[in-house]
Amino acid sequence: MKPRDRLRIAMQKSGRLTEPALDVLKxxxxxxxxxxxxxxxxxxxxxxxxxxVRDDDIPGLIxxxxxxLGIVGRNVLDEFKGVAGDAAAALTEWRPLGFGRCRLxxxxxxxxxxxxxxxxxxxxxxxxxxxxLGQWLxxxxxxxxxxxxxxxxEIAPKLGTADAICDLVQSGGTLVANQLRETDVLLQSExxxxxxxxxxxxxxxxxxxxxxxxxxxxxxxxESRLLLLQTSRTSLDAVTRLLPGGPQPTLLPVAGQPxxxxxxxxxxxxxxxxxxxxxxxxxxxxxxxxxxxxxxA
Length: 297
Ligand code: PRP
Ligand code: ZN
Hints:
By secondary structure, the chain is an alpha/beta fold. The protein folds into three domains: 7-100 and 191-220, 3-Layer(aba) Sandwich (D-Maltodextrin-Binding Protein, domain 2); 102-189, D-Maltodextrin-Binding Protein, domain 2; 223-291, 2-Layer Sandwich (Alpha-Beta Plaits). Helices cover 28% and strands 31% of the residues. It has helices at 18-27, 58-63, 74-84, 130-139, 156-159, 173-177, 203-222, 236-242, 273-281; strands spanning 7-12, 40-41, 48-53, 69-73, 91-96, 102-109, 124-127, 145-148, 164-169, 180-189, 191-196, 224-232, 250-253, 260-268, 285-291. The longest helix has 20 residues, at 203-222. The structure holds 1-O-pyrophosphono-5-O-phosphono-alpha-D-ribofuranose and zinc ion.
C-alpha cells in the first residue's frame, strides 16, 4: 500500500454521533467539502479527510490502517477489542469526547424477579454486544446463553427469542416502551477519539499531535466560562472563596479607585445564577460570565 500523506478520520455516516462529531472537528479547524451522501469527504484547510462509514466498521478500519483515527462509541471500540483479540490490542482511546453518552445494560421484563446476576443462570440474553456480555457473564460466573442479534434487541423477550437483553440505554425510553427493567450496567459509554497505540512517525503523526492539542483546547473550552467582576480589596477573600473551581484568578487594578480590584477567573463548568448571587452578596459587583471561544495553553 502506498503511504498516505493525508490523515484519514473514520466516523459514523448517519446516526446519533454524526452531527456532534462533525461539530467537534469543525471546532478543531477541520472543515470538509460537502459530499455527505458519499463515503469520502475531502478536507479543505488541513490535510485531513473523512471516511463516513457504519460505526461498527470503524475500529476495524483503524486496526487495518485504512484510517488513522476514528470517532466512535466506547461500546463499539471495546466490543471490537474483546472480540478481535490480539489484532485489536493496539487500539487506544485517545480522548473521551463528552457526547453520545449512554450505557450498556442488562434489562429484564418488568415482571421477572431479579436481584443478583446469578439469577440469569440458564436464561437466554439477546444482545448486539456478545463480546462485552460474554466478559461480564464470565466475571460474574453466570451460565447464560448469549443470543446475538444485529438490532431490535429490545423486542426479543416479547417475541420469546430471549429472556433478558443486554443493550444500550440512553434516555431509558426504549426500555419503558418495552416493559423492561434495567438491572446492571456493564459499561458507561460516550464518543471517543480512537487510534493506534503508537503514532505514525511521518507527517500524519505530527498532524495527529496537533489535532490532539486542538481537541484538548476544544474540550476544555466547551466546559469553561470566564468570570469577570469588581470587588473591594476588603471583600476579596470572601469573594475568592466562592469562585467555582479553576486556576488562580487574575487581579487587575481599577483606574482611579485604589481600593477596588477587577477579578478575572476561568471557571470549569457552568456558573449558575445562584452562585453569582452568592458572590455578589460577598461583595462583588459588575459581574459578567462569558463563554470562551478558543484556548491554547
Ligand atoms: C439504541 C439502543 C436502544 C436505544 C436506547 O438504538 O439499541 O434501542 O438506542 O435509547 P433510549 O434509552 O434513549 O431509548 P439505536 O437508536 O442506536 O438504534 P439501533 O438499535 O438500530 O442501533
Ligand atoms: Zn446502534
